[in-house]
Amino acid sequence: MSAAVTAEAPVRRRSGGNGAVAGVLAGALALCAALALIDLTQGTAAVGPVELWNVFLGSADQDSAAVVMASRLPRMLAGIVVGLALGVAGAALQSISRNVLASPDTLAVNAGAYFALGIASVTGFSLPLLASSAVAFVGGLAAAAVVLGLSGLGTGALRLVLAGSALALGLGSMTSALLLLYPQATEGLYQWGQGSISQGGTSGVVQVAPLLVVGLAGLLLLGRRMDALGLGDDAARSLGVNVRSTRVGAVLLAVLLSAAAVTLAGPIGFVGLCAPALVRPLANRVQRLGRAVFFLPLAGLMGANLILASDVALRAVVGADASVRVPTGVITSLVGAVFLIVLAFRAKDSGSVTPTDHHPLPPRWRYLLTVAVLAAVALAVLAGSLLLGDAKLLLGDVLNWLAGESGKMVGFVLDTRAPRVAAAMAAGAALALAGTLIQSITRNPLAEPGLLGVSGGAGLAAVLVVSTVPLVSPWGISLAALAGAALAAALVFGLAARGGYQQNRLVLIGVGVSAGTLALVSLVIVLTDPFNATKALTWLAGSTYGRTFLDVLPLAAGLLVFVPMAAFRHRELDILSLDEDTPRLLGVPLARARLLFLVVSVILTALSIAAVGAVGFVGLIAPHAARALVGRRHTRVLFTAILLGAILVGAADVLGRTVIAPAQLGAGLLTAVLGTPYFIWLLWRSRARQAG
What we know:
Number of strands: 0
CATH superfamily of the largest domain: ABC transporter involved in vitamin B12 uptake, BtuC
Strand content: under 5%
Order of helices and strands: HHHHHHHHHHHHHHHHHHHHHHHHHHHHH
Distance between the termini: 19 Å
Largest sheet: none
């Protein structure tokens, strides 16, 4: 039995009959009805319970009736329909994969559907709702196929979440690129992309409802086969179930439900993960609820309750006026992040999901040649970054500028371009060093600041300061980012310490914290000045636009301090990356050394984000590539990874400034687009080796 199957703590079931099942379903329906009525009474207009009652009786004034029928009723119905669709989809995906972490979010279905609709938006074609659902279905299905192909079915929770998170990050980066490149064609797409159930009428709900009926009916027809799959593939085959066709059919129907929900309300996060998790304890106590024919509808009701409760709580906490700007999906994403962290403690550790690096140590001459080549490439990237851009320069122009003899135009170009180049390459070096340190102390080849939530904490604090304090200094942004990164790291590593830094738990908690910080960033963006949305999106894209040498100064100071320190203590890193016992036998203070290198990595991550914004995957790619080139000894890995990180972000920055000039893309978007295939390749290699 796989780790995913046993992720939930065993609970002794009671043999509840039809009465118990009917009671649970009736309770869920009653809760849904109560939340729906409360939701109808909330809004900016003065239409409360009394006016609502009069509307039902047909005796309300025209204004009250118009508010309820044109705005509040469509919003409430959309919440129910979307919640039902996502709850059922999540339950079906978890059932056929035997993985409690499977959902439209963790399989990147929502991200794929959102990206497909983004592409449709920039083409300029106005698609009817059902056609948009078809586009979303194709995008979501393609994403789900990639994730399921990488993670397998029933082979472990961690690989599925990592594959889905990586693909969602890459698709999200490409969608963000569309938002920045086509602001007019995608106007309003960002807020819709956070998941909002606000509707301009009931037409959308009416058109999507048949898709919900088809999806739910199809899954109920597959219910007995899905129950058999829960016993294992061999047992299902012995009962005459076609395993492949059952899984394909269930995935298609689940993606159809998710696409319908995304088309109507945008990608509302983590409902498909949370709703089945809320039902599962009930199913453990009432045995018949575990059958798909009951579990699927109940999960759908729980999804509807979750969305309605989030909408009600949002309007109660921030008020009716402010809640109009806050998408409901932001709240459900926060709830989902908590659920993911809780589920991380229930998932059993199954070891690393990537092959352990056993790279041989090359001869010294080959190492020196590798470093020389990388240094030459870094110099080439540096020169190309200075010469290329809106205005093309010659190398002589740069030399004259350095000597203070350049003309006014050349001087202006290089005065604005050189700080950007310095920021990009310094940030790449810092993130590479931070990733190397984190992978060494956790002995986890997938650990990196972005996946572990450190980058998310730093980005949240930086965006909060940028959005609320327009005249904040670079040092102020750096201090804020450092505080956010420190809090995120303390949360992730503090929670993971309960149980000895298990790899599954550490990464799952990090992914949960990252999801939570991303939801909070969205909350900050929509609640502050609307003009801050573009600024914050640019920041999250990892842009070097408008940077000065003063902005780079904190990061440069951090590198000058921590690169020599890490190089001086390279032997400790070698020992820490072996196992738990060797450091103690050799007299290395394990806890103190881990804390030191963790603090260093947090500081470097925060300084890099303060300088250039969010740049993902550099802390993963650079250490892996460095070990493949020069072996595992940190006296070689450190400098090689630093050079690779500087090259990667520097090249991404110059490509973002030149390929589609005069438009620009942030370096963080390009590194995410490049890093996603690499990360997916790591997971594919892992599965191929384990299968072999």
